[in-house]
Amino acid sequence: MNSTNLAAPSRRALLVDLSRIGCAAFMLGASQAARSVDLPDSRSALPEAETLRILRSRIELQFAPGFGKPLQAAARTWVITSADAVARYFSRFPVRKVELALVSEQGSGVRSVVTYGEPSLLMRIRLGRETTEAQFIDDEVLVREMVHLAIPRIPRAQNWLREGIANYVASVARGRVGLVSAETVWRDWAAAMPQGQPQPGDAGLDHTSTWGRTHWGGAMFCLLADVELLKRSGLRSGLQDALQGVLAAGGQYGVPWTVERILAAGDAAVGQTTLTELYGRMKDSSEPVDLSSLWRDLGTTGGMLDDKAPLAKVRRAILA
Asked: 38 or 74: which carries more pLDDT confidence?
């Protein structure tokens, strides 16, 4: 969702104003003529801002009115922790600068994170004012959205790759910094990834845009790619190295690339053709993945981690 007609300051103020009067369903760039409202003076509604530095990147953190000091501190820690997890995975934060506009509302939990690319990169985050520290720690929405910043814009029909990378990498990144245990990552994947299996009438990842195939079919592609990359390289390089190569080649948020170009850049970074080969097998195929055998070989069956399994070293390398 983009807005090319609003300057950044006025856009941020409008986002805050609309949140304060309860227009949570407002979509930036769409018409808003349901009723007439009196907006508060935008000068008094400007958020409280501060700058965070993650390696060489800057995150401008903006707290809209309504944040108490405890919630502000907890939210700040959540942002820093999330950004750090993403930066560690990619060896840098995906973009040089991004603005995070945090808006509070009644209730608890992280309600939504939406990214706007124009006129400048902005994430709008809706938080319940009663959100606890434990809820911040358990939430992966912000990590997932930040991972999106490292993925080029691709055709809608192939959105499974964007969403799949975001789902998969968010879990890996959080697991690597200790926000979630390895057992939990594998248990959650075992529960969720079957949603990505082809259903009757499926024509392959490039031709089936259901929610399950888009989000978890794409994540399944990433897991299969990670396992194969690590096997072929003797554990020297995996999907992380390939995605770092895509980012290093200029593939990031908003830049239009084809899926073929993304995968070729990832393959070039690790000196393999694994990603391109796997895409060739799955893009037009409705053949299901044998997840039961994969979990057994990785040593994750039944929620227990088996270090004697054939691919136990690969499993450990994924979250190392």
From this structure: 74
